[in-house]
Amino acid sequence: MTHHAWQARTDEKASPEEIGAIDRWWRATNYLSVGQIYLLDNPLLREPLHRDHVKPRLVGHWGTTPGLNFLYAHLNRMIKARQQPTMYIIGPGHGGPGLVASSFLDGTYTETYPDISYDEAGVKRLFKQFSFPGGIPSHVAPETPGSIHEGGELGYALSHAYGAAFDNPDLLVAAIVGDGEAETGPLATSWHSNKFINPASDGVVLPILHLNGYKIANPTVLARIGEDELDALMRGYGHKPHVFEAGFDDESHESTHARFAAILDDVMDEIAGIKAQAAEDPNMERPMWPMIVFRTPKGWTCPDSIDGQQTEGSWRSHQVPLSNARDTDAHLSTLEGWLQSYGPDELFDDAGAPLPATSEIAPEGELRMSARPESNGGLVLRDLIMPDFRDFAVDVPNPGAGPAEATKQLGLFLKAIIEKNPDNFRIFAPDELASNRLQSVLEVTDKVWNARREDDDGAHTASSGRVVEMLSEHQCQGWLEGYTLTGRHGLFTSYEAFIHIVDSMFNQHAKWLKTSRELPWRRPIGSLNYLLSSHVWRQDHNGFSHQDPGFIDHVVNKKAEVVRVYLPADANTLLSTYDHCLRSRDYVNVVIAGKQPQAQWLTMDQAIDHCTRGLGIWEFASNVPLGEEPDVVMAAAGDVPTIEILAAIDIIRQELPELKVRMINVVDLMRLQPEEEHPHGMTDRAFDQLFTTTKPVIFNYHGYPWLIHRLTYRRNGHSNLHVRGYKEEGTTTTPFDMAMLNDIDRYHLVMDVIDRVPGLGTRAASLRQDLFDRRLAARRYAREHGADLPEVANWTWPDADEESKRAMAAADSTGGDND
């Protein structure tokens, strides 16, 4: 069905019939919301309310819900009148009963869950399931049709809304910002998202600041500042505020509805005017987008007081105002009167179904906010048109070729993706696109920027573009979540240490994906892809504050079917890995890769095979005769740990040539887990064949070493596993000194081999002492010269071609441009 967006309203004001329909919807959704919180039986009060009709555990939140229901009703009328595609995103954390009630009333809920039928039995099931064992959560969750925004955590309504609006030029996203939510850092920052919206090619976000005065137990900041101050704040953010206040006097509901309908019409006419201007002039100056300040009592329409204490308009209405409705006659009677105040007999027929007049204000089909295809993003998902990543391969005639910058090669691949997908793919970065070496994409796209531009900004800021950069990890994460949840593709690149800023947002998205995968009606969406560079081992410019690989540990706490962690060792493995990630669905993919010039190890064909396996033996670095066991296994995960393992093997070949060494590289960290723990996990038999059950294993790892032990603790021979990794030692120093501070350096790795291979300690005692002394010499050199020893900085694999050896020697391997 084709809908015509951004139509101006032809009637001067809402008709009395429309006002009546709005009020019936509002009363019905309020009734259904209260019923969900309280009732286990007798859902339509067809008999006097009894204590056994009330749930034994009263869980839920009423305070914000009536305001959300009011707004939903009015948006219904606007959508129906203008045929305007609209999504509804709520920031108030626990408005769940209202959104469930609205999707039930417009028919979407029953279409999605047929057992929640349009009769008394269906209403009873609707009520019972809410915040009930085996039922649905109290907040807006994946189970709620029309939702893309988990209401359990505050701060992300606007960033999700703008992510949904990017590249959706006909879509209005009504984003309800709770006044408690408005106090969070991410939400306060997300008001600036309007500087990244193009009026011609993007949709429109309509922020509605819902001021009801209180959080759980305290007043809210924005509800308690003066009107002039609030107006100045919103205008300072770039919005034109329209102020509405209701519920604080004896004004009739009809008059209240009429006033808000008029404001909403004015707002929509302003938006239609902006869109019309943008159609004529796509490069128009950024407009002052309208927003609504919506001020109502908390708990609007609940009993004015309970037990002699103010309830409506008070923090006491935040959760369950009548907490003893099952236990005291007074509360039970008050609950019955509250429910009856909505007039259920006027709203539902004898069978228990909503009367046609109750839901007549709802739009039809996909225009229902609960049925918007974008809110079930897989319905509108288009596969990316992918270039062949092999075309961007680094030539590796021999192991150790190079040097090359892995993320720079990825940037060339992403450039081609953008060319082929001009409206379906975006890159989000907190001012780190160029720093992370992805700037090649700017040859085919701009960085979107709709604030003032100056000549010295460079040639790549424009009113539209595929790159969105703002120095806020929260916004980058939120925008990408909104973008992928509504059926598009993208990636978020950040410095490894600072991705921790979005730990909690990652948690919520991973939980959303986990739950969505269990709902057959939720279609798979594009994965949320991270590229973390400027990582822990090459932070010689910024130092200790920028050295933290712990995001991996955080990620692997989530359900195995959702998370993936990749540590490609060179450019070709990075290209193969990212091609896979961008084609995947319903995952969070974390890819960690360095950006500095480094040696390259695998041809593209070898890299593809290696990435397909996820880990494997690198034969060029192994010297175990066919049919024999190694004396030691040396494994690595991560680019710098791989270099140090290979350099250690080079020393062993020179100093201990009789030692049989098997070298294993791990690119897919999840392969280390048993197959019953993760879909990518290995069988014990396969793991034992690679790592052996009796031989020492020296594992050089990118992150905190205990994670490898955690992933492998059930494996045979785990007691033989010795892991080196980051142990919270760092400073502003050279790359090799950084490795030595954490004992992942080549000299220490050979010492580990000497200490752990039976019988080697005595024979290699002099070598061990020499390695210890070489570490001291390397540290002294770094302290004296500010650079690493040439024998370290210019080291190449012995089999590297001569041209690569000269190039590595010429490369500035001590550079640490991480800003």
Automatic annotation (TrEMBL):
Ranges for domain Xylulose 5-phosphate/Fructose 6-phosphate phosphoketolase N-terminal: 14-379
Cofactor(s) listed in the protein's UniProt record: thiamine diphosphate
Domain Xylulose 5-phosphate/Fructose 6-phosphate phosphoketolase C-terminal: 595-797
Lineage: Bacteria, Bacillati, Actinomycetota, Actinomycetes, Micrococcales
PROSITE patterns associated with the record: PHOSPHOKETOLASE_1, PHOSPHOKETOLASE_2
Signal peptide extent: none
Domain of life assignment: Bacteria
EC number(s) from the headed UniProt entry: 4.1.2.-
Identification of the protein by name: Probable phosphoketolase
Family the UniProt entry places it in: Belongs to the XFP family.
